[in-house]
Amino acid sequence: MIIKSAFGPQVLEDLKTSFLQKKNCDVIIYVGEEPNVEVVYAHSFILRMRSSYFDSALSPTWAEMKDGKYLYCGEIDINPNDGTLALDYLIAADELNLDMSFIEYVQELLIKHIMEFFSSDPLEILRTILKYDHLFYKLKDHYLNFICDRAKYIFSSEKFILLEEEMICTILDQENLNIEEIIIWDKMIEWGIARNPSLADKEIAKWREDDFIILQKSLKRLIPLIRYYDIFSKDYFVKISPYEKILPEELNNDIFQYHVIKGYIPKFTKYKQRNRNKNRVRYDIPLDLKEDLFFL
User: Fold this and answer.
1) Where are the domains of the chain?
2) I want to staple 172 with a disulfide (CB 3.0 to 4.6 A). Which of 140, 205, 225, 238 is the partner?
3) Is the pLDDT score of 102 beyond 80?
């Protein structure tokens, strides 16, 4: 009978000690940029076992030698409270072809601590996740659901008007976006005007036909993503009707009839209500008040 003993933990501890004490290290890794550069000493056989990138990079045919040691750059940090840096770490791990189990583990860690993860820089985190959605496939759905539930933080951010069109499209395309639709409309208009400084200094009452065309072109992809039939009548007449020229004529006419004709069934069914609150009760205002608002 052969008795086996598990010395794995002790072996790992010895390897850790060897790393910390820089024993027999044959790799130098320079971390950061001048003047803030740190030097990390490592063992090539560990790097080659843990990373297919280093397995190739440290091969005799590819590695660059200097005084018998290898020169490489990298950065390592895992901290849910610094979301952007944590994602940078995952991106680096992907580029270095590290074990996928490591990438899975870090994503699970960020999902578990998503509140801290979200609070650091939600919009920049979202930008990175969407850019590398092939890598953050598990984190993406969790994060989108999380920000949809807390959409007011996204839409109230001063950075919202700096978002790329693709990012806003992704946000507006979510069925469970938990925020009033008229707020989404207001931010969309603000975003479009911010991209056309010539419109910023003009009162809407003084806009010419060309001004509406400019805004319409800027919002071409966003306009179809608004749920117009989920907007209260008062908000429609006060906030949307002044910009009605940027909407397709047939859609605008249908929205108008929806708000002035009791029991009117919308033609454009794709603009259905979001799932923000299935028990939400839609209120309306009297028809005579609607007419007064429309002709103000």
Assistant:
1) 20-73, 179-296
2) 225
3) no
